[in-house]
Amino acid sequence: MLGLALLYFLAKPFYKLAEQYGRNQIGYSLLAIIVYYAGVLGFGLMLGIVLELTSPGSVEGMNDFFLGLICIPAGLFTAWILYNYLEKRFKGHLSVDRQYDANIIDAELIRKDD
Q: Which contiguous run of DSSP H or E holds residue 21?
């Protein structure tokens, strides 16, 4: 039950951000949950590999609950990075310069001043 509450409070800021900028609220909420689980999985895999390389056999005896608690901050951190990226992207700080001709494929790779 606590996991569902965590996912709710994780997805809520993404929902509000998408609503503020007129984007798909459910899509960005699901993206937040997917990125959270990807961060948990990635950190868990890296931690498991490092532990096995440094002390073989230690992962087999590790408590699963403890490993889950260790991975939660990594998932929250990846979701926080995504939130900051999307917020800057929606505000226009990371927008692509639109001085190129939209009818030409890869027009941004061609310099106009050459």
A: none
Q: What is the CA radius of gyration of the chain?
A: 20
- Tokens for 56, please give them: 């073989």
pLDDT in tens, 25-78: 999 999 999 999 999 999 999 998 998 899 888 888 888 888 888 899 999 999
Q: How many Å apart are CA 27 and CA 11, to the nearest integer?
A: 10
Mark out the alpha helices in 1-114 (DSSP H runs): 2-20, 25-54, 64-91
**Residues near 61 by beta carbon (within 8 Å), at least 6 away in sequence:** none
Give backbone dihedrals phi and psi of 4, rounded to 5 degrees, phi first. Answer: -65, -40
Residues 6+ apart with CB under 8 A from 97: 108
